[in-house]
Amino acid sequence: MLDIAIIGAGPAGLSAAITGVIRNKKVKVFGNPPSTSYIYKAERIDNYIGMLGVTGQEMMEQFTGHAKELGVEIQTAKVIEIFPMGQSYMLNVENEFIEAKTIILANGLIKTNVLEGENEFLGRGVSYCATCDGPLYRGKEVVVVGDSSHAEEDANYLAEVCEKVYYMPLYKEIEHLDERIEVLYARPKKIIGENVVSGIEHTEGFLEASGVFIIKESIPTSRLLNGLEMNGAAIKVNRMMETSLPGVFAAGDCTGKPFQVAKAVGEGNTAVLQAVSYLNALNRAENKQ
User: Fold this and answer.
1) Cβ atoms of residues 141 and 208 within 8 Å
2) Which residues lie in coiled coils (predicted)?
3) Model pLDDT for residues 181-203, shown as the tens digit of each residue
4) How many of the other CB atoms lie within 10 Å of CB of 256?
């Protein structure tokens, strides 16, 4: 079991992980590759102390290298959902289940555009994870809506189990897509169905399908952990980066403005120190029993 599971491998998540390891806690970071971070694309950064004129790529490489040098374990994977388990939490990491005593959400700014019908049919034909739900659609026709080239891996997997896979990219250049997949250059508009999905309406017409896989770089925060109190699109926290759920903390852009690296790093450090205090209190309570 992990002491601290950190969702997000940006400045806030890596800051938290570094201090967590220094405080002798079992820590693991789950996140996308550094190149997907907004900061990675910055041409020049002048307002982070000690790193004048650094590029976003250089900054992320230094942050990641620092964390790995200290032994921080970083898993490039998507957390699909987090379930409360009494005094711990269970993470579904692309169908691998990992238990943690505390959670730090550092998952950044999440694109919140939701298709009409997406929420209504979630679990009834709409899925965010091909690895998790793909076998349910063996021999059937499905549509994959991908917001980046990372969705191509999910589509390629579905091509191995489904009768037919249609791919709707929401980005410009396709990189590595199985030749069995039919690419449809249209924008999705609405997911159609009654009790379950029957197809998807798009800008070029309508496509019949048994399932619609919406593959995003990150799962919407409100879907990631039920019961988490939000303030608009941001996670609601107090000054100690505590959320509305016990043992769950948040840091960085996911907590709202200002969207600055210095703020993210500071919040990550605060969040993990509070998580350490929470863990120590749990240990004292267990020792008294």
Assistant:
1) yes
2) none
3) 999 999 999 999 999 999 999 99
4) 17
